[in-house]
Amino acid sequence: MGCLGYGSHIRQARVDAYREYDSIITASDPGAGTVITTGSKAEGLTCLFESDLDEMVVLDGVLCLENGVGADTFPRETTVFTFNTGLCYHGHSRLNLLERRGSIMSPMSRDALCHDTNGHLLNSDLFVNMFDFIYVSGEVRHGRAGPTKHSSFGQLHIGIVVSLRCHCPGILLKWAERSRHLPLPDIVHKVVIMGAFFTPVDVKGSEYQHLEWRICFNTAENELMSSLNDI
């Protein structure tokens, strides 16, 4: 596999390079969001121009909390939403704004808020559309597929999904407590600490699809894949 460019040391070198790239891009615009490479590149399987560079941008200053988790331990400038997965199809939820709107809430998130009898909810459809108005110098747009915005910069093709950080210890601890041989306990602990994310993906045909978000575990999945590759 090494001769083909897929040996473990080559894949790890790619993973390290993409993580360094993420750090540089994140540092170039402080306070905007954290860039995380996902997909095949996060696993070190493809070179930069071999396929699209799939990235997730996690907005700063916004946090989604599982019901029952207190918000007092988080900075007051953070805007906090609560979620309950029992109200939607499996893996999806609505995001309700708590009575504390942080001082660093992005205009896009603020303008995507809507009100109903349950309070202020974050509209996933409006949220995605807000980011269509953000352009980067040299960017060529190629439309949108679901929540993913496709663009290119010369030969580099990028797919970007904007997401929100999710703190859900109850969900992850249930997974961690399952009886298993793999992954090893230290990997399980690391996955629990990583948390999750909400992406603006609805359930097709749902009556409230414009209010639905999908929970995902991108960084945890990458960690699990990496640990299995080392076996």
Structural descriptors:
alpha+beta; two-stranded antiparallel sheet; about 230 residues; ten-stranded mixed β-sheet
Question: SSE order, as H and E?
Answer: HEHEEEEHEEHEEEHHEEH
* Unreliable stretches: none
Integer count of domains: 1
* Biggest sheet features: 10 strands, mixed
Secondary-structure-derived class: alpha+beta
Shape: globular
Strand content: 25-35%
Helix content: 25-40%
Rg is 18 Å
Tally of contiguous helical segments = 7
Distance between the termini: 15 Å
Oligomer: single chain
Average predicted local confidence, pLDDT: 87
Based on DSSP secondary structure assignment, what is the total number of beta strands? 12
Architecture blueprint of SSEs:
Layout: H1 8-28, E1 33-37, H2 39-42, E2 53-66, E3 79-83, E4 92-93, E5 95-97, H3 107-111, E6 113-116, E7 119-122, H4 124-130, E8 140-145, E9 148-153, E10 156-167, H5 169-176, H6 185-194, E11 196-199, E12 213-216, H7 218-229
Parallel strand pairs: 2-3, 2-10
Antiparallel strand pairs: 1-2, 3-5, 4-12, 6-7, 8-9, 9-10, 10-11, 11-12
Helix pairs in contact: 5-6, 6-7
